[in-house]
Amino acid sequence: MEKRTVRVPVFLSVFGFFTLTGLIPGFQTDLNAQKLDVAYVPTPDFIVDKMLEMARVGPGDYVIDLGCGDGRIVIAAAKKGATGRGVDLDPQRIKEARLNAEKAGVAGKVDFVEENIFDTDFSRASVVAIYLFPDINVRLRPSLLEKLEPGARIVSHDFGMDEWQPDQKFGRMEQHSVCLWIVPAKVAGAWKGKVAGQNVQMTISQEFQKLKLAVLLKETTLNVESCSLSGKEIRFTAINPSTRGKYVFSGQASHNEISGVVQVYEGKKWSDEKWVVSRESSFPAKLL
User: Fold this and answer.
1) Which fold has domain 189-282?
2) What is the pLDDT of residues 176-190, one digit of tens each?
3) What would you measure as the largest C-alpha separation in the chain, in angstroms?
4) The dihedral of CA 269, 258, 207, 217: what is its sign?
5) Is 65 exposed, middle or buried (CB count within 10 Å of its CB: 0-12, 13-18, 19+)?
6) pTM score, two decimals?
7) For residue 153, which of 224, 238, 55, 6 has the smallest C-alpha distance?
8) Domain boundaries, the chain
9) What's the CA gap between 124 and 122, in Å, rounded?
10) What sections of the chain are H helices per DSSP?
11) Which residue has better confidence, 13 or 83?
12) Which class would CATH give 3-182?
C-alpha cells in the first residue's frame, strides 16, 4: 500500500486517507493542518458498483462524493448517466481524478475540487457518497439532514451514522459493507384535514425515518398498526376498533401538507378515497 507524507486536515476521508490522529494516545493535532504519514485506501470497484446500485444512480442524478480520492465513484456514476462532483483536500488526488475522468470520457459530466468537506455545498445533490470515519459522519449528519431535499440518498462504504439507522444495509462483502439512508421529510407535528370526507386529526412524533402516529377520525381513535417514511412517502395502516374497518394510507409529504390515497376496507367492501391534512403546528423531531 502506497505511503507518503502529505499535509492533511484533522478530518479527512477514509477514501482519501486514514489519519493517525485519535489513534495514537497523546497525539496533538493542529486545527489547520500538519504533516502526517498516511495510507491511501481506495474503495474496491465492486463496492463502488454496490453503492451506486443501492442508491439507484442513473440519468438525472447529481452525485457528490465527499472525500473522492481518485474520483472512481463519481466517474462510475457518470457512466450511468449521472453528473457529479468529487471533493477532496489532497491536490494530488484531485489531479488524478481529473485525469481519470478524461480517460473514461466523462470529463464533461463531472468536476473535482480541492475543498474541505465541511465547506462543501451539497444541497443540490440527489446522492451523496461517503467513506468517512463514524465520528465525521455524525458531524456531517445535521447538515445532510438540513440541506438535502427529502428523498435524497446517502450511501456509505463501511461506516454508519450512529443512532440514525440505515434504510438499507448490505454486507459484509469481503469484509466490506454498504449502508443507504434516504433523507426523511420533516413531518413531526399536529395535522388536521379530511379522510374520505370525514374530519381527521393526526399527531406525529419522529426520530429520523421512524414515526409514531395518533389518528382521530371523527370521534374515534384509530389503532395504528404500522407506519413508514421514505423521503416524502408516508405509509401507515390504521384500524377502527369499533367497526374493525381498515384504512391503508399512502401519501406524499410537503412542508405543510400531506396528501394521498387511503384504501378503506369495511367487511367485504373496499374503496379508494382521498385524504389530505395540513400542518397545525410543528413538534421537535430528532433529526440531528
Assistant:
1) Lipocalin (2.40.128)
2) 999 999 999 999 999
3) 73
4) negative
5) buried
6) 0.84
7) 55
8) 3-182, 189-282
9) 6
10) 45-54, 72-79, 91-104, 134-147
11) 83
12) alpha beta
